[in-house]
């Protein structure tokens, strides 16, 4: 357990060991935003259900058109009104969204029609299918439109409503327990005494878990003692699907989390070759996944983004996907190389280059607030001005 895993190996270990931890339930579509779909959704109708007009104009048969022909209007069709079969040689006044009458195969925009008395002349020759939205253009009956594992968005709500769906099967929210450790930590609202600092990791993890769509079941704090750490973990085990902790996972005399984990369950990995965030521990306690994050706030943030987010996604039924990235050229140099993958907090300048925030301490959170994402510099790699590196925006996590 003393050898550090590579960044990629750690991701793979968590991905392979994580399993679904929640059961499906059927809920109203109106309440489904942010929930994870448990069953593929297959369209049982065509959308649109009929050919319809893409704009206001006149429907006719292409073969009836002649440059000097005078057309009479044989019917008027509005959206939601059934259309009658088109009388040959005539046209139909039609409005956006209205069904195309049988016998018609093109729509001419009203701006291209010239009215002469009670008749119309269309100077420009139409093409078959012009300005017609065909049946099933959006969705075909029998088509899988959303796959299980997708998080339902407001756009999905609109799409499913267009299919007439009122209820869907989603997974129940994942119940997450959060444990912070450390004698020095006190909650905001109390007066600081010498040697104390405010607990920022607890509120931050609470917000990150909630933002991801999971439910924080309990948020506990334990002093630096094996007894308190064990008692807190046993309490969380009673009601949580997954447990996250921060602090107490390094090698100091007051770091008790790993020892308690080895007593209560099985430790899968400890220490990852990344900066910041090396001391991370992954374990299973009574069948419940546990991920112990480092105590320094920036290390907590990085390891949550990369590892806890992945674990929670899989356990909640979501697809196990890495966050989106794109290549950005560095706007700075650094000759020094380290033997760990590094996640540098950067902002993108007006010139499109990535610039490192001057503060990269693992204990500093302001740098993340003043940056736009991480520049991923792989182990044993120099940073060269103008060279490309993977950039991961914070908005993608």
Which secondary-structure class do the elements indicate?
alpha/beta
Adjacency order of strands in the biggest sheet: 16-13-17-21-20-18
Beta content comes to: 25-35%
Characterize the largest beta sheet: strand count, sense, and whether it forms a barrel. Answer: 6 strands, mixed
Arithmetic mean of pLDDT: 95
State Rg. 30 Å
Shape: elongated
Helix content: 10-25%
| SS elements, strand count | 26
Number of helical elements:
7
Classify the oligomer: single chain
Query: Whole-Å distance between the termini?
Result: 29 Å
Low-pLDDT regions: none
Protein name: Molybdopterin molybdenumtransferase
Enzyme class: transferase
Keywords: Magnesium, Metal-binding, Molybdenum, Molybdenum cofactor biosynthesis, Transferase
Pathway: Cofactor biosynthesis; molybdopterin biosynthesis
Topology, element by element:
Elements (H helix, E strand, L loop, with lengths): L6 H11 L6 E5 L12 E2 L9 E2 L3 E4 L12 E5 L13 E4 L11 E4 L3 E4 L2 E4 L9 E2 L10 E3 L7 H9 L4 E5 L3 E7 L3 E2 L10 E2 L2 H11 L3 E8 L3 H12 L4 E5 L10 H8 L1 E5 L3 E2 L5 E5 L2 E6 L3 H19 L10 E4 L11 E8 L5 E3 L9 H4 L3 E5 L10 E6 L4
Parallel strand pairs: 5-6, 13-16, 13-17, 14-15, 17-21, 19-23
Antiparallel strand pairs: 1-12, 2-11, 3-10, 4-6, 4-7, 8-9, 18-20, 20-21, 22-26, 23-24, 23-25, 25-26
Helix pairs in contact: 1-6, 3-6
């Amino acid at each position: 357990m003393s050898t550090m895993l590579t960044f990629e190996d750690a991701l793979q270990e968590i991905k392979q060991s994580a399993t679904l931890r929640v059961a499906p339930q059927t809920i109203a579509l109106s309440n489904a935003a942010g929930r994870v779909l448990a069953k593929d959704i297959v369209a049982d109708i065509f959308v649109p259900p009929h050919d319809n007009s893409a704009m206001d104009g006149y429907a006719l048969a292409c073969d009836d058109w002649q440059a000097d022909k005078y057309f009479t209007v044989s019917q008027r069709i509005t959206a939601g009104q059934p259309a009658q079969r088109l009388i040959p040689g005539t046209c139909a006044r039609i409005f956006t969204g209205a069904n195309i009458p049988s016998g018609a195969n093109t729509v001419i925009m009203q701006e291209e029609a010239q009215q002469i008395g009670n008749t119309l002349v269309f100077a420009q020759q139409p093409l078959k299918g012009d300005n017609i939205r065909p049946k099933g253009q959006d969705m075909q009956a029998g088509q899988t439109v959303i796959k299980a594992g997708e998080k339902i968005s407001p756009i999905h709500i609109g799409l499913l409503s267009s299919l007439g769906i009122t209820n869907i099967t989603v997974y129940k929210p994942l119940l997450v327990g959060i444990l912070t450790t450390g004698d020095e930590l006190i909650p905001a609202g109390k007066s600081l005494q010498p040697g104390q600092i405010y607990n920022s990791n607890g509120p931050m993890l609470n917000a990150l878990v909630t933002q991801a769509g999971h439910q924080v079941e309990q948020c506990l704090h334990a002093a630096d003692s094996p007894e308190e750490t064990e008692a807190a973990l046993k309490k969380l085990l009673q009601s949580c699907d997954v447990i996250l902790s921060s602090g107490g996972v390094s090698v100091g005399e007051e770091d008790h989390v790993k020892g308690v984990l080895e007593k209560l369950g099985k430790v899968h990995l400890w220490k990852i070759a990344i900066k910041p965030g090396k001391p991370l521990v992954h374990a299973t306690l009574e069948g419940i996944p546990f991920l112990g994050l480092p105590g320094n706030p920036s290390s907590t943030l990085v390891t949550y983004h990369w590892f806890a987010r992945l674990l929670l996604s899989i356990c909640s039924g979501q697809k196990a996907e890495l966050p989106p990235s794109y290549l950005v050229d560095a706007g700075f140099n650094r000759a020094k190389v380290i033997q760990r993958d590094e996640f540098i907090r950067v902002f993108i300048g007006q010139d499109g280059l990535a610039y490192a925030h001057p503060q990269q301490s693992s204990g500093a959170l302001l740098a993340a607030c003043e940056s736009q994402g991480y520049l991923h510099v792989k182990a044993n790699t120099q940073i060269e001005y103008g060279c490309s590196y993977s950039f991961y925006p914070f908005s993608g996590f």
